[in-house]
Model the fold of this input.
Amino acid sequence: MTETTQELRARIDGLMRQYYENYYRKDLSLRDWRERIESRLNEEQTFAEPNIRRVENWMGIDFAGQRVLIVGAGTGAESVVLHQRGAEVHGIEPYNKAMEIVYLKADQHNIPRERFQQAVAEKIPHPDESFDFVYCYTVLEHVQDVTASIDEMLRVCKTGGLVYIQTPEYRFPYEGHYKIKRVPFSPRWLTGLQLMVSGRSTAFLRTVNFVTAPQLNRIFLDRNVLTIRTEPDWLRIWEPVRKQNPLQYWFAKTFGFGREQYIFLRKLGPAG
Ligand SMILES: C[S@@+](CC[C@H](N)C(=O)[O-])C[C@H]1O[C@@H](n2cnc3c(N)ncnc32)[C@H](O)[C@@H]1O
Done:
């Protein structure tokens, strides 16, 4: 007997609950893990839609008809939204529990399952020059090898195409996974110590690359790319929460960078 649409939705919701309980409760010990799971059940609307809309507005992109690769597809929200925009979406994701959900969401939205592969950013299973747009959102801080991942994303991107990287800025006094304030410009071990003092697990932190803009710019400098950063945007986004974060706001205004990096790399041809 084939599964009904409602049964499929219920199965996806059940797997999403397990997946995000593991992440928000066990890995990160966030107090509001329950609310976060509920919000994740509708992650296409709560997360992916506003993020993709910002990319469209910033770069004047229409994804319809574009070949897009999602690197670190997670539980599939970005894939679904970009598919609904009319893109030909492909994805890679190394974690099998996430892939299980991605496949079910592919079924739910009539996206061929073969478009998704269990793979890592360091070794993308696609030929050179395959995609108009490579979308990498909150993934670079989790890969094993940052430089190899950037090189692979550029390799599979068409000349003239874009690689979009959103990742934290670890010079900033905030850790976005654990949602804690941290000492600015400090190394990972100090944030780990801070977590230990407050009785929280540091296992997940040890897997995070503390990437910074100068570190990434040093990589981009040696590649044939035009680097576009959307620095000013966070100031507008933060306007309503300025009062709640006066120190972070002061820091951002003083040092000229925010807690996240939004980077577009346009792959240039031989003429540069
Ligand atoms: C914070 S999640 C982001 C998922 C998705 N982009 C989103 O915003 O919902 C990070 C994802 O990167 C994946 N990941 C970890 N290491 C990776 C690697 N080496 N290559 C590609 N993806 C990786 C994780 O399994 C996880 O699904």
User: Anything to note?
Assistant: The mean pLDDT is 94. Residues 47, 71-72, 74, 77-78, 93-95, 98, 120-122, 137-139, 142-144 surround S-adenosylmethionine (CB under 6 Å). The two ends are 57 Å apart (CA to CA).
